Amino acid sequence: MTTTMAGAGAPVLFKAACPDCRGRFELGSDAFRLAIGASRRTTFYSFTCPDCRRAVRRPAGERIVELLTGGGVRTLRLHTG
Fold first, then answer.
1. Cα gap 58→40, rounded to integer Å
2. Coil, helix or strand for 15?
3. Dihedral of CA 53/63/81/74: which sign?
4. Would the pLDDT of 1 be above 70?
5. How many whole angstroms separate alpha carbon 35 and alpha carbon 57?
């Protein structure tokens, strides 16, 4: 995953790919959801592929979390207990 900033005030675009249809595309931050859990297994991002309309869920390490939160992606913090 990489980010593209188009200029001042322009939305941040993220390059992504679909593992099902193998499509490659750029999506705005509003197309993503980030869930931050207590472990690496429960921290992930998701989006809907614009080509095949399948839900895609991918693990998110520290760097991906930084990119997505810095780009304005809506974040859900998962709590346990």
1. 11
2. strand
3. negative
4. no
5. 10
Measured over the CA atoms of residue 37, residue 63, residue 3 and residue 15, the dihedral's sign is: negative
To the question of pTM greater than 0.85 for the whole model, the response is no
Strand spans (E) along the chain: 2-5, 12-17, 24-28, 33-36, 44-48, 55-59, 74-77
- What are the pLDDT digits (tens) for 13-72? 999 999 999 999 999 999 999 999 998 889 999 999 999 999 999 999 999 999 999 999
- Name all contacts of 34-41 with Cβ < 8 Å and 24+ positions apart: 34/60, 34/65, 34/68, 34/69, 34/73, 34/74, 34/75, 34/76, 35/75, 35/76, 35/77, 35/78, 36/60, 36/65, 36/75, 36/76, 36/77, 36/78, 37/78, 37/80, 38/78, 38/80
Q: Tokens for 55?
A: 């839900």
